[in-house]
């Protein structure tokens, strides 16, 4: 979303969210106020800023009504680092499973990747030139002297061959010739050998946890003593560009500035979406899984309240991170959460189940609605698909009816219905007539009988 968020008031933020999400006005209103308050906070004095904390939000509503999408679009709108976390993956400290501290480490990684991508754009031209030189090194190896890879072992590596001045001059001439062919795109399918870093993942160490889970960067600890592990790979020139561009971009990026910017974004703009929040609500039982569930709530407390988490990039304060918790709360109520957690989510929003009319709007209104997606996909095959109003209404009716008879999965049911309706067209394109009308009769022929058979619809739709 290319919008200047600083210029949007809460009403303007809702207008932007309306482009992608149908209904749920109260939820949009709450998140827009939370986002605008962040901007307002930055205009306060430093002394006042320290005391203004974000008001965390608890969304309650059935699956498929837009809880996750609202949070994700809000993050995109504000350019904020965003992570969606299923809290059921985490366990109380002392149990086997991921620690809740890794939530913040995931947020920081997301922020690092975002800032790195932005900085990579600024150095793209220089990085492409460096990639070209490395490709030429592989095409004309005699034109360049190889360098050691650094570290203690480099003293014993890559003995330099003696090259006569005449041989070197001929090699440079050949290099210039290859450079021109490279620019003309004549060597894209030529096979070359390149040397890239071997990024074999680090094996878990303690209790199934990797060093990153503990906030440890092994590369920083040992990188200066031992050389990076490299491997040679035979690829086409066009693939070498793709592999080498991020490597050369990273060399040109100011890493200290990147880390500082990423940590600040994570701390002051970060949004953490805690999904399946109702699943960590325990009963009054003092044993079994309920103990661990309540333990997860207690472990989340300091993070939501505000603490400092160690990451491999440095310490991160969680005081100003916005937490949005969401759950269906069918079997439990928000009031069943431990009191301390309830107090950390002062804003409560109830999301409404979707109606048949909502389904019709979802098919048509969003910026990249399902109908627009399918029309665009089939247009690439030269097939023009037209959805009539009665065809759209029929798909919405069927989705709503199946949700009523089976498990209610909200708007996700539209994907299933739409896929079934468009199955034959997608399979036979482009060897079919170039204009196809999806009307009520067409929709009913494809899925009408399935809906009537409840046993069949529960498996297919």
Automatic annotation (TrEMBL):
<keyword id="KW-0378">Hydrolase</keyword>
<dbReference type="InterPro" id="IPR004491">
    <property type="entry name" value="HslU"/>
</dbReference>
<dbReference type="GO" id="GO:0043335">
    <property type="term" value="P:protein unfolding"/>
</dbReference>
<dbReference type="GO" id="GO:0009376">
    <property type="term" value="C:HslUV protease complex"/>
</dbReference>
<dbReference type="Pfam" id="PF07724">
    <property type="entry name" value="AAA_2"/>
</dbReference>
<dbReference type="InterPro" id="IPR027417">
    <property type="entry name" value="P-loop_NTPase"/>
</dbReference>
<dbReference type="GO" id="GO:0008233">
    <property type="term" value="F:peptidase activity"/>
</dbReference>
<feature type="binding site">
    <location>
        <position position="22"/>
    </location>
    <ligand>
        <name>ATP</name>
    </ligand>
</feature>
<keyword id="KW-0143">Chaperone</keyword>
<dbReference type="GO" id="GO:0036402">
    <property type="term" value="F:proteasome-activating activity"/>
</dbReference>
<dbReference type="GO" id="GO:0005524">
    <property type="term" value="F:ATP binding"/>
</dbReference>
<protein>
    <recommendedName>
        <fullName>ATP-dependent protease ATPase subunit HslU</fullName>
    </recommendedName>
</protein>
<feature type="binding site">
    <location>
        <position position="412"/>
    </location>
    <ligand>
        <name>ATP</name>
    </ligand>
</feature>
<feature type="domain" description="AAA+ ATPase">
    <location>
        <begin position="53"/>
        <end position="355"/>
    </location>
</feature>
<keyword id="KW-0963">Cytoplasm</keyword>
<keyword id="KW-0645">Protease</keyword>
<keyword id="KW-0547">Nucleotide-binding</keyword>
<feature type="domain" description="Clp ATPase C-terminal">
    <location>
        <begin position="354"/>
        <end position="444"/>
    </location>
</feature>
<feature type="binding site">
    <location>
        <begin position="64"/>
        <end position="69"/>
    </location>
    <ligand>
        <name>ATP</name>
    </ligand>
</feature>
<dbReference type="InterPro" id="IPR050052">
    <property type="entry name" value="ATP-dep_Clp_protease_ClpX"/>
</dbReference>
<keyword id="KW-0067">ATP-binding</keyword>
<dbReference type="InterPro" id="IPR019489">
    <property type="entry name" value="Clp_ATPase_C"/>
</dbReference>
<dbReference type="InterPro" id="IPR003959">
    <property type="entry name" value="ATPase_AAA_core"/>
</dbReference>
<comment type="function">
    <text>ATPase subunit of a proteasome-like degradation complex; this subunit has chaperone activity. The binding of ATP and its subsequent hydrolysis by HslU are essential for unfolding of protein substrates subsequently hydrolyzed by HslV. HslU recognizes the N-terminal part of its protein substrates and unfolds these before they are guided to HslV for hydrolysis.</text>
</comment>
<feature type="binding site">
    <location>
        <position position="340"/>
    </location>
    <ligand>
        <name>ATP</name>
    </ligand>
</feature>
<comment type="subunit">
    <text>A double ring-shaped homohexamer of HslV is capped on each side by a ring-shaped HslU homohexamer. The assembly of the HslU/HslV complex is dependent on binding of ATP.</text>
</comment>
<feature type="binding site">
    <location>
        <position position="275"/>
    </location>
    <ligand>
        <name>ATP</name>
    </ligand>
</feature>
<dbReference type="GO" id="GO:0016887">
    <property type="term" value="F:ATP hydrolysis activity"/>
</dbReference>
<dbReference type="InterPro" id="IPR003593">
    <property type="entry name" value="AAA+_ATPase"/>
</dbReference>
<comment type="similarity">
    <text>Belongs to the ClpX chaperone family. HslU subfamily.</text>
</comment>
<dbReference type="Pfam" id="PF00004">
    <property type="entry name" value="AAA"/>
</dbReference>
């Amino acid at each position: 979303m290319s919008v200047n968020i600083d210029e949007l008031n809460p009403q303007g933020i809702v207008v932007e969210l309306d482009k992608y999400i149908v209904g749920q006005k109260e939820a949009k209103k709450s998140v827009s106020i939370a986002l605008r308050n962040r901007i307002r906070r930055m205009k306060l004095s430093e002394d006042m800023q320290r005391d203004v904390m974000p008001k965390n939000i608890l969304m309650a509503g059935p699956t498929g009504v837009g809880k996750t999408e609202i949070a994700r679009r809000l993050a995109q709108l504000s350019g904020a680092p965003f992570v969606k976390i299923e809290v059921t993956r985490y366990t109380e400290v002392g149990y086997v499973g991921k620690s809740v501290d890794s939530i913040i480490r995931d947020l920081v990684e997301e922020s690092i990747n975002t800032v790195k991508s932005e900085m990579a754009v600024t150095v793209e031209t220089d990085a492409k030139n460096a990639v070209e030189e490395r490709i030429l090194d592989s095409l004309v190896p005699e034109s360049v002297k190889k360098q050691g890879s650094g570290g203690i072992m480099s003293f014993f590596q890559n003995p330099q061959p003696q090259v006569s001045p005449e041989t070197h001059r001929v090699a440079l001439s050949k290099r210039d010739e290859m450079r021109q062919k490279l620019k003309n795109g004549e060597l894209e399918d030529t096979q070359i050998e390149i040397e890239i870093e071997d990024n074999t993942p680090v094996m878990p160490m303690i209790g199934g946890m990797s060093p990153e889970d503990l906030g440890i960067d092994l590369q920083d600890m040992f990188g200066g003593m031992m050389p990076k592990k490299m491997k040679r790979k035979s690829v086409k020139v066009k693939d070498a560009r793709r592999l080498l561009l991020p490597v050369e971009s990273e060399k040109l990026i100011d890493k200290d500035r990147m880390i500082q910017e990423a940590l600040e974004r994570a701390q002051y703009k970060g949004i953490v979406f805690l999904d399946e929040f109702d699943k960590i609500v325990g009963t009054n039982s003092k044993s079994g899984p309920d103990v661990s569930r309540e333990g997860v709530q207690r472990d989340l407390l300091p993070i939501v309240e505000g603490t400092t988490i160690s990451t491999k990039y440095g310490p991160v304060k969680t005081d100003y991170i916005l937490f949005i918790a969401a759950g269906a709360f069918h079997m439990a109520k928000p009031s069943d959460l431990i009191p301390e957690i309830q107090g950390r989510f002062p804003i409560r929003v109830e999301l409404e189940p979707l109606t048949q009319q909502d389904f019709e709007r979802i098919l048509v209104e969003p910026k990249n609605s399902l109908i627009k997606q399918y029309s665009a996909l089939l247009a690439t095959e030269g097939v023009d698909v037209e959805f009539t109003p009665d065809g759209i209404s029929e798909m919405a009716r069927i989705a709503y009816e199946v949700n009523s008879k089976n498990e209610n999965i909200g708007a996700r049911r539209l994907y299933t219905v739409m896929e079934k309706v468009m199955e034959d067209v997608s399979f036979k394109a482009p060897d079919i007539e170039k204009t196809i009308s999806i009307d009520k009769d067409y929709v009913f022929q494809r899925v009408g009988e399935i809906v009537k058979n409840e046993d069949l619809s529960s498996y297919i739709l």
